[in-house]
Amino acid sequence: MSIRNVKSGTISAIQNDPLTPYTDIQLTCQNEQQLHSRITRKACEELQLMVGQEVFALIKSVSLEL
């Protein structure tokens, strides 16, 4: 795996966007840092993501927005 930026945290919110095929995920990391991610609804379903679940976010630096 070439991704070097990994953050662990707990999913604090999941919101489907009804106008697009995407789902927005909010992750609460250490020190209450918030990480927002957008993945496909299909990926969310396949990964069986749920609020309260502990996960690892793999971050590609070319896709990072501040």
| Major sheet | 4 strands, antiparallel
* Spatial shape: globular
- What is the CATH class? Mainly Beta
The side-by-side strand order for the widest beta sheet comes to: 3-2-1-4
Strand content: over 45%
Layout of helices and strands, plus pairs?
Blueprint: E1 5-16, E2 22-28, E3 34-40, H1 41-47, E4 54-59
Antiparallel strand pairs: 1-2, 1-4, 2-3
Tell me what the structure shows.
The protein is mainly beta and about 70 residues long. It has a single domain, classed as RNA polymerase II/Efflux pump adaptor protein, barrel-sandwich hybrid domain (OB fold (Dihydrolipoamide Acetyltransferase, E2P)). The protein is about 10% helix and about 50% strand. The chain has one helix at about 40-45, and strands at about 5-15, 20-30, 35-40, 55-60. It has a 4-stranded antiparallel beta sheet with strand order 3-2-1-4. A hairpin with a 5-residue loop joins strand 1 (about 5-15) and strand 2. The radius of gyration is 12 Å and the shape is globular.
